[in-house]
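Hi D.,

Good news: the full-assembly prediction came through. Inputs first.
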Amino acid sequence: MAEASTERAWADLRSTVENSRIWRALALADIRSKYRLSTFGTLWITLSTGVMAISIGLIYGQFFGQDLRTYLPYFATGMVVWTFIASVANEATTSLINSGTWIKGSSLPLSFYVMRMLQRNFLILLHNLIIIVLVWLYFRWSLPASALLSLLGLALNYVFLAGAAVVIAFLCVRYRDIPPMVGALTQFVFFASPIMWEAERLKVGQFLVTFNPVAYLIAVARDPLLGRPVPLLTWIIAVGLAAGSVALAAHVYARYRNRIAYWV
Amino acid sequence: MASIDLEHLCIDFPVASSQRGHSIKAAVLDKARGIGGRMVDTSGSAVAVRAIDNVTLSLKVGDRLGLIGHNGSGKTTLLRVMAGIFAPTSGRAEIRGRTVSMFDIGLGIDAEASGHENIYMRGLILGMSETEIEAKRQEIAEFSELGPYLDLPVRTYSSGMAMRLMFSIATSIQGQIVLMDEWIAVGDAQFRDKANTRLREVTDRAGILVIASHDEGLLRGLCTLGARMENGRVTAFGPIAEVLSGEGHGRAA
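Then the structure:
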């Protein structure tokens, strides 16, 4: 039994990579059908995040008495990355639960439903990148070549979230108290992470940054783009987080794969 | 070579409940005698319904199996095991060959998307490659007789037209193993004849066909083998005519 389960899990993983066009197409269809009849279409994604990032950025920037030239790009970029992380964490909770009819009606691997959700949010992230471009056009901070490292940072986020989403999705099918828990937790993590505030200005509570995985993940995606130095240790930890998350996901997947169809 | 081998297959469905498991368990146990699968008390803490109980059978190329039995006797569950959706709780299930399951043919249909877009999406979900889909698009369009409607959102279709589309896509893919939960009936009288012929072709070309149905006449014409299911067990297995007349013997070959 256990061996068959592991074998099937490997087959699923292979299929997830080889047949990625299926979940990518499903994700695209999700986005398209949501905005199909609206005039602005998918630009609404950009608009709604943009309004939030810029208005909160302007207001809080004054509260914290900071130079808007540095604060607004910092907040907007962090917010875009955070939105990606938070929506994936939240939608992961229902990605399998809501796919019940699919799981029982087709032979697609379970990982497809999680990847569909992740990819959908990645497409949303791509829309939100426009905000960063607009903010840059306004402030024109200097972009070093190392800004490209942000792409690597983003890729690490994608990998980390793929693993985390599988773990969350599987746990949520079994324990239905977890979805609301994740919702509450992401709210807390938002305030506890260096998104609205900068880690260097923290007077007490450095542990919020030191022991907060989200702080590293946001840093590797955001800081290179802003020309802020990213310590090597931060990169190492981010890579470690991504690898650890995928390893844990593989374990959970192989162990519970065969039970999910019974639980949804 | 396609084949299906089930060996002492058991499928238990856990009855979901949080901490109130015990009271629900008691209530359900009292009510559930007589209908559906048997309730089994697995570990003392969790309760489960045994949907498939010790089924052993093997099918090889050329076999056409009709599943007979009341609601809740385990026909659909058995089909889903063969489709690889449910893994055995105990026992073994080995399925070799490209399996096409004809249940839920409307899965993934997006009402806001056009007929053509849906052909693409449904095709992907069924496991076709992009070139395969493009190769079949014309044929699907012709068979469905939807013509220019395929450029309109499925939302604008009548339910009969939507069914035609789903049916045409579902039957465009050829599997070595075809699994069907009830014969699919679509469209008006004229289209129905055409659809029946096409479904017949798909099942004829299949190496192995397994179909669950309450229509004995249909099974008689379609199948070579029959299996009668009761409470998750196969109580009779053999040539379809014998099983239908109640003469089939108890064990699978």
